[in-house]
Amino acid sequence: MRFAVALLCLLGIASIIGTVLQQGQPVANYLVKFGPFWTEIFGFLGLFDVYASGWFVVIMLFLVLSTGLCLWRNIPPFMREMKSYRIKAGRQSLAAMRHSTVLAGRLTPEIAVRYLDVQGFSSKTVVREDGSLLVAAKKGAMNKWGYICAHAAIIVICLGGLIDSNILLKAGMLSGHIVPDNDSLYAKDFKPESTLGRNNISFRGNVDIREGQGADVVFLNADKGMLVQDLPFTVDLKKFHIDFYDTGMPKDFASDLVVTDKATGEKIEQTIRVNHPLTLHGITIYQASFADGGSDLKFKAWNLAGNSRTPTAMDAVSMRQFPFEMGGRKYQLEFDQFTAMNVEDMSEPSEKKAQNFQTAINDVRAVRQDKKFTNIGPSIIYRLRDQAGQAVEYKNYMLPVKQEEDYFFITGTREGLEQQYRWLRLPADAQGKPDTFMALRERINDESARKRIIEAATRGTPADIRDRFNQAAENTLSIFAQGGYLALNDFMAQNIPQAERAKMQDYFYQILYGAMNAALEDTISHYRLPAWPQDEARNRFLFHSMDAYTGLTVYPAPVLLQLEGYKEVRSSGLQMTKSPGASLVYVGSLLLVLGTVFMFYIREKRAWLLFDDGEIRFAMSSSRNERDLQKEFPEHTQRLEQLAKDLNHD
Q1: Which DSSP symbol is given to 184?
Q2: Using one digit for the tens of pLDDT, what is the confidence trace for 174-212?
Q3: Contact call for residues 609 and 315 (beta carbons, < 8 A)
Q4: Which terminus of the chain has fewer CB atoms gathered within 10 Å of its CB, N or C?
Q5: What confidence tens digit (pLDDT) does each residue in 485-534 have?
Q6: Of 364, 368, 367, 366, whose CA–CA distance to 486 is shortest?
Q7: 312 - beta bridge partners?
Q8: Relative orientation angle of helices 626-647 and 109-118, to the nearest 10 degrees
Q9: 264 contact partners, CB below 8 Å, separation of at least 6
């Protein structure tokens, strides 16, 4: 029994782990959450599939064996005890009991038996060899069934767990008859030894189905590979529905399914949603998740090496990979999930309107920790992978997002999943487009245009300083065009003494702002963009453009993609389980409830009346809660004596 209790404690701890730690997820999800070191440790310990791990199964086997032996040993004496009236109780043993007394008055055995019957006792009368007569009574003998039911419940629940723990699958993998596949992407590519037949007694697998498509298999995680489980039916997804809260978080999602029986061809149409599954052929289909099913996407693509304001239209499909070539270098463009609605941390931007050159440098490099969550519309995640296999991940939002007083087109970049995104913010113009910024970028990268802009801007300066001022402004704008604020900062660090640097920073910044303002005016005029009078909004746009230009000079990609349109296609994540052991678990749970009721709410009590030589000895005992008898025993004694008095009056 102590061994069984110890095993129960171990199972309890393991069940806590299996509840807290999400089970059966792809290894990549655990790598992101725990890192490679702890993922390897947890995987070795079987914590990602606790209930099917070898050590958990072994504990359940030992618990079944231990509890089974306990029942085997104790059921016979329990049954004998429940049937026994303990008629061998002698005069001395009854007198030695804690609750024992000699009744006053004369009482016949027949009256005593009738009284005990009324009080719920069953009794047995025995005449002994010495002439004495014993009335032995009992009630609450069902209390012993509590112990039997509780122990049987543990066995039944563990047997149900063993059936659903894929113990046969584990045995097949150990024997080599079943081999998980580590390479195949599609079900048709899995080898026979990696495919499970329809006779598999239990499994739990997942499959994602796009709208308008179907599946007749599910995929099972097995060690470091996958197995394919064949199904006796085909599941087609007609339509996926999803509702959102006002915050943009999912409220409810459901799938309209058409299930076709492979043997009979019978079709069943039903909508499943969370907590409302469909069961067919002993297999239960749950609505588990949803995802992007491969949406059609439209992009604007700017070649960052060419400095052109005119983007190239590009079509793509999410969840797909495409070869990509730019500047003579080959890349792999890997599109991840498209999300039509996002609730994101849109904190107050770190780049603020700079008062001087140094604050502009600090603002561009600053990182804020503030958080402000809001729905900001569609987004796409993609990765650009070079020939060496190194990839940078990008997250682009389709709609301009308002931060402070202005709108920005936002793209995040990061080089590892453990990193936070670094955000590039392109300012939207008065028409809510990035066109003005891109035109300004093209203009200041044109050397001849820069010269004409500076000449036009410096015509009003005094003649004696015009040439020097013209040259300073042209050089400042040229350096900024090469690398933004960072290039200017490096130039000053290399050419200006430390003592004069603070004064020269403000000087350079004033020259740069004047030159950029002239460049913006020239850009609007040259490209015939909508007129934009000098006002506060235009000044902020100019400051944001200078920050964005600096960000683009260190942008880790040869091309900038801006999501422009989409046609969403969703996929439904279904989990299919075949768990015949679940019925045993339900039966075991019922037995556990019955056992608890029998043990804690049914009291076993015994009573004896010994008639010997004109003396009547009354005694009672209880297997538990002697405190109850402290009240009941005097009451029974008083009632029996009152019966004797009432039935023997003159």
Answers
A1: -
A2: 777 888 888 877 788 888 888 888 888 888 888 889 888
A3: no
A4: C
A5: 898 888 888 888 888 877 788 888 888 888 899 999 999 999 999 988 88
A6: 364
A7: 301
A8: 130
A9: none
Vertex 122 angle, CA 119 and 128, to 5°: 120
Q: How far is CA 280 from CA 231, 253, 436, in A?
A: 11, 21, 60
Provide the whole-model pTM: 0.63
Whole-number Cα distances in Å, 245 to 240, 250, 291, 374, 389: 17, 6, 18, 12, 40
In 3D space, the residue among 578, 573, 576, 575 whose CA is nearest the CA of residue 169 turns out to be: 578
CA-based torsion, 416, 421, 424, 427: positive or negative: positive
- Do strands 195-196 and 225-244 pair parallel, antiparallel, or not at all (unpaired)? parallel
The sign one gets for the Cα dihedral 397, 403, 408, 411 is negative
**CA–CA distance, 345 with 329 (Å, rounded to integer):** 35
**Residue pair 423/410 in contact by the 8 Å Cβ criterion:** yes
Q: What is the 3-state secondary structure (H, E, C) of 413-442?
A: EECCCCCCCEEEEEECCCCCCCHHHHHHHH
DSSP string of 59-89, one letter each residue: HHHHHHHHHHHHHHHHHHHHHHHHH---TT-
* 107 secondary structure, DSSP code: -
Q: pLDDT-based confidence at 367, cuts 50/70/90?
A: very low
Using CA atoms, how far residue 493 sits from 255, 474, 572, in Å, is 62, 19, 57
User: Running DSSP on this structure, what letter comes out for residue 182?
Assistant: S
In degrees rounded to 5, what are phi and psi of residue 205? -135, 170
d(CA 209, CA 574): 8
* DSSP H helices in 260-411: 357-365
Which amino acid is residue 582, in one-letter code? A
Helix, strand, or coil (residue 489): helix
pLDDT band, very low/low/confident/very high, at 373 (cuts 50, 70, 90): low
For residues 512 and 476, the answer to whether their CB atoms sit within 8 Å is: yes
| Side-chain-facing half-sphere of 386: CA atoms under 13 Å | 10
